[in-house]
Structures are given as C-alpha cells and as structure tokens.
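Kindly draft a sequence, keeping tokens residue-aligned:
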Amino acid sequence: MSLFRTSIADLVPYEPGKPVDAVQRELGLDRVVKLASNEGPFPPFPAALEAIGRAARDLNRYPDGGSYDLRAALAERHEVAFEEVVVGSGADGVIDLLSQATLEPGDEIVCGWPSFPSYVLFATKLGGVPRTIPLREHAYDLDALRGAIGPRTKLVYVCHPNNPTGTANGAGELLSFLDRLPGHVLCVLDQAYFEYIDDPDYLDGIELHRAGRRLVVLRTFSKIFGLAGLRVGYGIGPADVVAATSKVRRAFEVTSTAQAAAIASLGGEDEIAARRARNREGRARLEEILLGHGLEPARPALGNFVFAAVGDGRDVFERLLREGVIVRPLGGFGAPEAIRVTVGTPEENELFAVAMGHVLSGVS
C-alpha cells in the first residue's frame, strides 16, 4: 500500500517563477528582470503600506478567521450581500475552496486548455476528473466547453481573460453560454485581471451575479493593486456556495496584513486608471517586440501579459534566463511551444527587447 494518494501520482507541481536573486547567483548576472509571474510592476498603494504597518504591530495575534471586515467592505463595494463573498489566499485559494466544497472522486470539471493549471491541479488531487477543451484561435471555445459537460460535471471554468493567452470571449458569446448551462453545473468565471480591461465588449461577471445568474466570479488583489506577495483574493457568488466553502477553509486562511492591505486598497480609481493606461502601453510594446522578431502574439490580449508560440518554450526560457530576463515557459499550462511575458516597466520591457534579439539571433 502506497503512503501517497493515487490521485496525485501523475501531477506535475505548479512551476513558480524563478527568484531574481537565485538567477543572479547561479548565472553571475548583475541585473535580472522578472517578467514571469504576471505581477504588476506597481507597488502597493500608499494607504495599503500604511495599513500593513499598523497591522504589523499586532502580529502576535491570529488574524480574523472569517475576514469579516474585508468581506463587508467587498460586499459594500460590489453591492452584494455579505453572505455572497468568499475570501481566499489569492484567487487560486478560492479555486481550492470551491474544489474541496464540491468535488467527490470521479466528479468532473471542464475548462479550456491551455489555461490556468490550478483548475486541473485542484480537481485532480481530490480524485476529480478534468476535461480540458482545446482553445479556438487562442480563446475559450464555449460551444465545445458546453458539449463536454456530462452528468458528473460539477464546475465549469471560464478564464476571462484566459491565462496564459490573454484573450477573452465577447459579451454575446458568454451570455449565450451561461444561458445554456445545465442546472447541476456551477460556472466559475475567473476575472483575476479585471482591472486591466478596457474592452467595451467585456462583461463584468459581478453584474451578471447581481442580475440573478448562478455563477462564482473570481477577483484578486495580486495584480493591479500590487499585493501579490500578500496573497489575497475573493469570489462573489451564491450564498449557498459561499457557505459550503466556509466548511473547508483553514481556520486562518488570510493573514492580518493581507486583510488590512486589501481593505485599504479599495477605491483609488484614478490610480487604477493610470496603471491600466501604463499597462496598455507596455503590453502594446511587448507585442511590437514580438512582431518585430517575426513572432505572432495571441491577440487581442486584455491582461498584463502576452503569449507567443516560439517553437520550444523551455529552450527560449533558458536562453533568455542567461540574458538576465525571466519569462514563463508554458509546459505546465498545456502550451510547451510558447512563452508568456508579463508587462514590466518601460525599462524592463526594453531589456526584454534586447535579450530577445540576442536569443533569436544567436548572439550571447
């Protein structure tokens, strides 16, 4: 008898971005730029930094296990009931809670592929069965997704925009998909990059929830708010789903500093708009760099990253690493032929341009 669960035997762990200082030590580089993890290049808001400082004085105390103040603030901001808000350790923490609350061994989830690996990882480790549906022109094929639903399907994920391709489905297409979902299936609409979006054909999932549609909408403070290191995200969904997640969450799911910083980050719409504009400019520059090298990035990209097929993503990743630029190889996402590049500062984007030129020309 094996010590380990059979459901995890073939799992490949999620591959985190390589730390900058580790790359510097290993390769003897003076400067390393990390464009791998879809972090924003922006720091936390000043109000969040002040809140972290205040919270740090009480770190001898456990955090509020129910995240009461943060849930209340999110409920007010999104005009939903307190009972419709779940908070987790990042958006993927909420995915974990949803998986634990819903999936029995043999139950199915459906998602597009390549896409965010946590959908598959969290289902598989519970003995669930992931049904992965190939993308169509780098975007979710919602008709094929609907066709893959069976009697044991519990969760259907729509990554919106999709990580790693950056693409999203249009409003009419998404509404038609939701209209045709069977009643036994819960849609999880992952909008982790929501604050970057300025596409008029992009639907706000929380508005759909308020209109009475049964779905869970995911958001995070890890991106434009600059709190990736604190790990705090949330979901808005039906009260019965949120109540079920509370049965499986850890006693202290989100730290005190994370809760305080997240509350302090709410608002600041002018700063968010400015960061959105700078991200749009940076994303366009990355696309220009890739196109200039004869590569075709997936478009239209709506998040803070770009995706491009490069032949052998791992090889290009390794060669860029030696140039001091860390990008994300995408074998674990289901796209071994591609890389994902996060929008950095203007200087970081230009360092990527130089490094990419060296890699593709064979110069070192």
